[in-house]
Automatic annotation (TrEMBL):
Species whose genome carries this gene: Erpetoichthys calabaricus
Family: Belongs to the HAD-like hydrolase superfamily. PHOSPHO family.
Pfam families in alphabetical order: Put_Phosphatase
Designated gene of the protein: PHOSPHO1
Binding residue positions for substrate: 48, 128
Protein name per Swiss-Prot or TrEMBL: Phosphoethanolamine/phosphocholine phosphatase 1
UniProt keyword annotation of Hydrolase present: yes
Annotated GO MF terms: metal ion binding; phosphatase activity
Active site, per annotation: 37 (nucleophile), 39 (proton donor)
Coiled-coil positions: none
């Protein structure tokens, strides 16, 4: 009897030891946050142009294209989707096109690496495309599970079967389109997650993008962070302009990429240090 009780005590103590060790490890566990843009970053096209392939003749009439106003792309895209609905385009037609959009070169290597280290990385998608396009594409590619969340314009089918687009939020940023400022999204996300993580900030931030709207959030990244602008795309050009006009003001490390392999290799080297 005594031996049995001792054995039970040892098992209990062992259990507590394991528990406290895993709590200790959890408390000291490094956590990195990586943001991805979608259009021309994850996928190798602008999805707003891709969906037009579902329209009759695979293009839009000139009168519709002429309604675009600078800084109001989201509203324009709403009119495009409404026109496509009028032309009889429904979910099936859109889905067929979306699922075939090609991934950007080398980007699958980044996802393989992130999947292998899912305990170290929190992965977030921020895009000015829309929820329907992104979820449809990610699900077809088997990638939906990789992302903790998708922050993008809401889109859903109405009773007629038309895809209806809404703006993400409102903001006061001068350089971003009316419906979305990614800097506002990133700072709100960081604040919210730090609160949820008992005040702990992430150990390092990464940002993969290509557009002018990816430049806006990248200026708030610090010297410990790394941004990956697609080589010679607007985000990269704007960073270079800022580095030249105000030396030292752009804080993050900049690693341009033409293939996602560059990013995968960088992350792997960073983890191996
Ligand atoms: Mg983009
Ligand atoms: Zn902005």
């Amino acid at each position: 009897m005594a031996g049995e009780r001792e054995a039970q005590g040892a098992i209990l103590a062992g259990g507590l030891l394991t528990l406290s060790r895993s709590l200790y490890m959890a408390a000291n566990h490094k956590k990195f946050l990586i943001f991805f843009d979608f259009d021309e970053t994850i996928i190798n096209e602008n999805s707003d142009n891709s969906v037009v392939r579902a329209a009759p003749g695979q293009k839009l009439p000139a009168w519709l294209r002429d309604t675009y106003r600078e800084g109001h792309y989201n509203e324009y895209m709403g009119r495009v989707l409404s026109y496509m609905g009028d032309q009889g385009v429904r979910e099936e037609g859109l889905r067929t096109i979306i699922e075939k959009i090609p991934v950007s070169p080398g980007v699958p290597s980044i996802f393989s690496l992130l999947r292998a280290h899912h305990d170290l990385f929190e992965v977030v998608l921020i895009s000015d495309s829309n929820m329907y396009v992104i979820e449809t594409w990610l699900q077809a590619a088997g990638l939906r599970q990789l992302f903790r969340c998708i922050l993008t314009n809401p889109a859903s089918f109405d009773a007629r079967g038309y895809l209806v687009l809404k703006p993400y939020h409102t903001h006061a940023c001068q350089r971003c389109p009316a419906n979305m400022c990614k800097q506002k999204i990133v700072s709100e996300y960081l604040r919210q997650r730090q609160e949820e993580r008992a005040g702990r900030p992430f150990d390092k931030l990464f940002y993969v993008g290509d557009g002018a709207n990816d430049f806006c959030p990248s200026v708030i990244f610090g010297p410990a962070d790394t941004v990956f602008p697609r080589h010679d795309y607007p985000m990269h050009k704007l960073i270079k302009e800022m580095q030249q006009s105000q030396p030292g003001s752009f804080k993050a490390t900049v690693v341009p990429w033409q293939s996602g392999e560059v990013i995968a290799t960088y992350l792997k080297t960073f983890l191996d240090r």
